[in-house]
Design brief:
single chain; alpha/beta; six-stranded mixed beta sheet; 14 strands; about 40% helix; about 15% strand; disordered C terminus
Length: about 475
């Protein structure tokens, strides 16, 4: 079967990263004899008739689409033309949006025929073979039976991603964070799963609650391939919880010291500060880490408790200091406008970020992620979710907390960036970052997007009274 994998276009995005999930699926399908084509419209920027031509050229028997919820508004524009061009070719949707929205994804994207919830490396080949009905985690538009996301028991079955479809040197933009040291870079996955109960996150629907590990021998075979065949010089571990199992993380670092490859490492998805210790940080530094990203979310202990982050500001400050004692810069992720936050809470977050010793900070606005506890509450009160997707990104504010408007939150977000970065030493750090190859245009685009003050908000009439 000819399978075309579509990575949706993301106009204006600087987050151009090889689609690691699709590359793993491509390898799974090729192992089973399917012919695979990747159309990475997020990389090429093609839309409209140009995108249609790129997909039609592959003559797909099935179109497999991955999507975040932030991709929905673009796909609502692109899929009707693709449907007209491809006729009855089945459109299959997987990835975060399908996993988190479930059967509601059919309403969001009417052209989709089947959705895959959770990890699809086993369910997709089974579905394509036509040998089973009602596969767990798979729902067809014609049979919306109740099923939940499925997750692999054992990650050792995962093949090495099909990197020949997405050579890393093509990807020149910034990854998740604002820190990038060397090009080309490549993302890898070493673990999946998250046991934490943060109310704003729905990652458990995508990769499950239970932490599972890829065998380190397979991980390092992949890194060796990336270095030898594709010249990769920086590896990004995209796990949600790379350091959750400290022994596994330490063994990874020890293997890095033994192999001594010419690469550096980072974990741009962030690590839990309460999983770090001195031994692990020493190993990470010696193994080639040049920055530690961490999820902080808020500088208010009250808010941290309310979103079940299970961290305190005193512990956060202590761990930031510990990381820096090992000579590692620290990048922190914050969320502005969490449910129940007040203006005073957000001001406290800004002050904490400035005084905490962080070297970089990212201030994203709260998004009501479908499938999360907070997102479910918000969408249950929303009569017209189709109006939400066009503003479902971190530079807008579709869901301000009670007592604050979208414009209020956007102004506070801008204030956070200005207060954190417009200081002498921070400005010098930004200047050094901009001198790295390929960084300037993407940093400038991201900077102006986050400082843009014109809020696009959901029509109040779409909310239930």
């Amino acid at each position: 079967m000819r399978c075309t994998l579509l990575h949706p276009p993301r106009p204006g995005s600087s987050n151009t990263v090889p689609p690691i999930g699709l590359l793993i699926l491509a390898a799974v399908l090729e192992e089973r004899g399917h012919e695979v084509t990747l159309v990475d419209a997020a990389l090429t920027g093609v839309t409209g008739s140009t995108l249609v031509r790129a997909v039609r050229k592959s003559e797909p028997d099935a179109l497999l689409i991955t999507a975040f919820s932030s991709d929905v508004s673009v796909l609502r524009r692109e899929l009707p033309e693709l449907r007209l061009a491809l006729g009855k070719t089945p459109f299959l949707l997987g990835g975060p949006h399908a996993s988190c929205r479930g059967t509601a994804a059919f309403d969001d994207l009417p052209e989709v025929d089947t959705i895959f919830m959770g990890e699809a490396e086993e369910t997709l080949p089974l579905f394509l073979s036509g040998g089973a009905n009602r596969i767990p985690g798979v729902v067809c538009r014609t049979d919306k039976w109740q099923t939940e996301p499925v997750h692999l028991d054992d990650l050792s079955i995962l093949p090495t991603p099909a990197w020949h479809h997405a050579p890393p040197e093509r990807y020149r933009g910034l990854p998740n964070g604002v820190v990038l040291k060397r090009l080309p870079f490549a993302p890898i996955i070493t673990t999946r799963g998250c046991p934490y109960l943060c109310t704003f996150c729905a990652g458990f629907r995508i990769t499950g609650r239970r932490i599972r590990h890829r065998p380190l021998s397979r991980v390092w075979d992949e890194i060796e391939l990336l270095v030898a065949r594709f010249g990769v010089r920086e590896v990004h571990i995209e796990d949600d919880n790379f350091t959750f199992d400290a022994d596994y993380a330490k063994q990874f670092c020890r293997e890095a010291l033994i192999r001594n490859l010419p690469v550096c490492f980072s974990t741009p998805n962030g690590v839990r500060l309460d999983t770090l210790d001195d031994e692990l940080l020493d190993l990470m530094k010696r193994a080639g880490w040049y920055v530690v990203h961490c999820g902080i979310e808020s500088g208010s202990d009250r808010v941290l408790r309310s979103v079940r982050k299970v961290l305190s500001t005193s512990l956060i400050a202590e761990r930031i200091a510990m990381i820096k004692r090992h000579g590692l810069p620290v990048a922190g992720y914050f969320i502005i406008g969490l449910p129940g936050e007040t203006r005073e809470d957000i001001e406290r977050t800004i002050s904490f970020a400035v005084s905490s010793g962080l070297d970089w900070a990212q201030f994203a606005n709260f998004l009501p992620i479908p499938g999360s506890e907070a997102g479910k509450k918000w969408f249950d009160a929303c009569e017209k979710p189709e109006l939400v997707w066009s503003v479902f990104h971190n530079t807008s504010c579709p869901a301000p907390p009670s007592g604050l408007s979208s414009r209020d939150v956007l102004k506070l977000q801008r204030k956070a960036f200005l207060r954190f970065y417009f200081r002498g030493r921070k400005l010098l750090g930004i200047a050094r970052q901009l001198l790295r190859p390929g960084v300037l245009p993407f940093m400038a685009r991201r900077f102006f997007a986050y400082l843009h003050l014109r809020p696009v908000v959901v029509d109040p009439s779409s909310r239930r009274k």
